[in-house]
User: Fold this.
Amino acid sequence: MKLKKLSFLAGAIALTLSAIPFAAQAEINSSSSTIVAQGKKQGGWKNKLNFTEDQKAQMQQIKESTRAEMQQILTPEQLQKLEAAKASGENKRGVWQSLDLTDAQKAEMKKVRESKKAQFEAILTDEQKAQMQEMKQMRQNRRSSRRQSAS
Assistant:
């Protein structure tokens, strides 16, 4: 009887010891994905640049005017498709690709985006521009390191 109890106890200890590394790895994976998700929710570059209330208002105005300009470029059918896709929560990039824009529309959209970018950069201070450039460089470095590790 004692031998059965000792065998059972030894088996339980062995099983516990072999399961600990898996449980620890699961905990690490779980917490790291939570940290990444929390980092994305915090607003990233918008918070890091410390915009003034005036800058935030100007950015909102630029965003709204850009949206209006882009909607004027689209046909009524494309607008319907865009609104339906937004309502269903589709991926933005996939939605725009599915609109089958003409070359002329693509050129107009590019002009609008470039104008938006210029307007946005005009409201930034020199310090914010430097910070933005630094963040772009870091993002490019991360992308290139991911590509190298994937190869």
